[in-house]
Structure prediction request, 550 residues.
Amino acid sequence: MSEDRKKVLEMLSEGKINVEEAERLLQALGEGSGADEGSKTQHVSLDDLEDQIKSGVDGVRRTVQASMPRLRTVIRDAAPDVERIVEEATASIPGVVEEVTRAIRDAIGATRSVNDDQFPARIERKFVEQAPISLDSEVELHNPKGHIEVVTWDEERVQADVHLTVRARDEETAKAFGDEVQLLQEPGNGRLVLRPVFPRGKEDASYRLDILLHIPRQLRLNLKTSHGDLVIPEMENDVVLGGHHGQLRLAGTSADAGIDHHHGEVEVGRIGGKLALNAHHSGVSVDEVVRDASVNAHHGGISLRRIGADLVLNSHHAPLDVTEVHGAAVINSHHAPVSLDQVQGEVTLNSNHGPVAAGEVGGNLHLSSNHGPVDIKSVSGDLSAQNSHAPLVVGSVGRSAVVRSTHGPLDLGPVEGDVTIEAARGPIHVGGAGGRVTIRASRGEVRIDNAKGEVMAENSRASIIIANDEPVHAAYTLSNNRGDVEIILPDGSDVEVQGFVRKGSVDTDLPLAVSANGQQGQSVNGLLGKGGSQVRAEVDSGRLILRQRR
Prediction:
């Protein structure tokens, strides 16, 4: 064989020319040298080589094309569950909390306060009301305006120390009205109602009653006030409290608590039963709820230290900080940050326009988030998440992960089970997976580290990178349009490699055969180790990089 022919064949094997170009060169050389038989023999070899290359390329295409519908089926079956689960779980939150709020308001009732700016004259009067009471009774007091402070004692009676302030156009009118104000006692049906009574023509004056209420701690309470503080010590029975434009402080109770408060700080100690709380324009601080908690809060911070059972929460423009939830948590939050340190049960979270940070989630996490970064330390169960326009970071997942993400980076893993991802316009990083990895992406780099199971990935306009510290024995099916595919195959891997680059090149330091594919790219094939699982890759425009980890 002449040196010229050898050079042509070397150029062909290196992928510098394609089969067609090699044939033309060899034909030209054959005509000039007169070595017809040699050129014919070589021509037959080239035909065989072309057939082999075409067969290999068709095999890669058939494998990749057959696998891509399966990838899309896996994505379609898994991804819609994310949105559905979160929407169904969080959709009921406003309704649930509204029912709780309505129940609280019905129990408390409505009162009206009169503006006293137009009344320059003022008088004050003090009086006391007392009544015996059974320890299994309820005390109800709705104060239209003023403080209510409760102190407990061991006597089986109720005493109300009333400090009355009356304002009117003149002092005489104020005194006349003030003498007629009463705090009537209305006992019956297992409760004692203390009802403020005002004179006729009360609209010609304004009234403020600051009341110090002495009661046994075993009683049930139903108290409300306006433009004044409501201060309650440790109680042993149910309490229903409400107010606005003042502070509300409940040291605690051994039973259930219902609170409806607006425009003032709310401070709650230990609740031995359930808590239902509705607060607007109020900072809320709750130390402990032994059983379930339902919270609706707008325009004020929420701090919950410990919830002993389940938490249901709806908030708008109200930063949320929860230290412990020993049951499940269902949270709907808008325009404010959410911080959850530890939830032992399942978490369903819908967050819009606010960052989310969570430590440990003991059960499954169903997450829907928009326009706010999400950072989750660990999920012991399954993760199903939908995220957009912000980063999503999940440190570890104990079982499977299904994620749909757009317009933001995704950093996930390690994941013990399967990983299913659909993403667009954001990079993806999977930091390890014990099961199958299925990814469909576009316009964002896809990087998968240390996947132990099968990998199916499709991307466009960005690269796919698969790196492994341990030998590979699982199947890969990869497809990329206008982006590189890079695979690290450590020493000891047992796979059959077949790759096709339609327009671009193959770059490898592995013992694999690289050849021109008859178009503007290259093909690669061969066995590593004992072969077995198939590594198939198709690149439409870009590079296929196959390397051994050093």
User: Anything to note?
Assistant: The mean pLDDT is 88. The two ends are 39 Å apart (CA to CA). The longest strand covers residues 533-547. The helical segments are 3-13, 19-33, 36-108, 171-180.
